[in-house]
Design goal:
Number of domains: 1
Helix content: 40-55%
Number of strands: 4
Distance between the termini: 19 Å
CATH superfamily: Glutaredoxin
Order of helices and strands: EHEHHHHHHHEEH
Radius of gyration: 18 Å
Strand order of the largest sheet: 2-1-3-4
Shape: globular
CATH architecture: 3-Layer(aba) Sandwich
Length: 233
């Protein structure tokens, strides 16, 4: 049986995507090699300060957005969120972190190709651990993940070769990989973080989608209707 491909888009500064990580983990745990999760980034916070100040100008700006983050986090006790987010530390953009993570993905891909193997555990992969470390650095520790020094510290803790990382950044390979994600998001009309695309984009689930909804969509695709039978999802 062909694995169900799930294209998962998110922005590292998005609280909804931070909380949704557990749902994606649950999918990976429950379906194993029946699904193929492809992670991509979408730019919801390309200019975080302008976005927050414009969208929340009538709701107390950064202070109002901070209250919103705290209200949302209360619904997800499985994740740690600092109560002072966006009051002290205010990342300028999510794009720096996205490019950084793309560089790590490129390094990981090269290593896997050399070993002639593939990831056996999606969430134990280097790129996935780096992704989670970046999100935790902001939401749990209050670090400015738009700062290269902060990201470099994360890479060091993960044992990533700094020379190879800089190589991917200076060669613009990481930027090109991120641009591919952005183009894919635009062509698929992805504007919300998180977004899940299945069935070659015909099934799109956006935002705070419950696990059972995700599971039902995967189950229906695994049921593999015939060419004359439409999916009920």
């Amino acid at each position: 049986m062909t694995a169900v491909r799930i294209s998962y888009f998110s922005d590292v500064l998005c609280i909804w995507a931070y909380a949704a990580r557990r749902r994606v983990e649950e999918l990976a745990d429950n379906f194993g090699d029946k699904i193929d999760i492809e992670t991509h980034f979408c730019s919801v916070f390309p200019d975080a300060h302008t976005k927050i100040l414009e969208n929340w100008k009538d709701r107390d700006g950064f202070q109002g957005f901070n209250r919103h983050i705290n209200d949302v986090s209360e619904r997800f006790p499985h994740v740690q969120v600092r109560q002072d987010l966006w009051l002290k530390t205010r990342p300028r953009t999510s794009m720096t972190a996205h490019i950084f993570l793309k560089a790590i993905s490129l390094i990981e891909r090269e290593d896997l190709d050399q070993q002639n193997t593939s990831n056996t555990d999606f969430f134990d992969s280097l790129s996935s651990r780096a992704d989670w470390a970046v999100r935790q650095a902001f939401f749990s520790d209050g670090a400015d993940i738009s700062n290269w020094h902060v990201l470099n510290d994360i890479a060091t803790r993960l044992g990533i070769d700094e020379v190879r990382l800089i190589e991917k950044l200076q060669s613009s390979e990481a930027i090109a990989a991120f641009a591919t994600d952005i183009n894919l998001a635009q062509s698929s009309s992805v504007t919300v973080s998180p977004t899940y695309l299945m069935n070659e984009g015909r099934q799109k689930l956006t935002g705070n989608v419950g696990y059972r909804v995700l599971e039902a969509n995967v189950d229906e695709l695994l049921r593999a209707p015939t060419g004359t039978e439409a999916s009920w999802c």
